Amino acid sequence: MVRAPSLASFGGPATAEEVRDGSQESAVARLVAGGMSNRQVASELFVSVETVQFHLTHIYAKVGVGSRAELAARLRDDTAADVATAT
Questions:
Q1: Cβ atoms within 10 Å, residue 42
Q2: Is the pLDDT of residue 85 over 80?
């Protein structure tokens, strides 16, 4: 399957798939979207709270959101859209 370049490659917001790329950022995004606090995420990933905050700053900019709730909604919406197109 060939994918068109995402908006992120043109400076637009990233898709949920791009945030879920297997990196530490994707793990932070998934855990935060699941309702964990920065401290809980840090403990789960064996990193500092500051590292979690650093990743969240980049994630928010990539995805084009400004809060945890917006991030969770965006990931949920993009995942639902991916599932709908797959069926």
A1: 19
A2: no
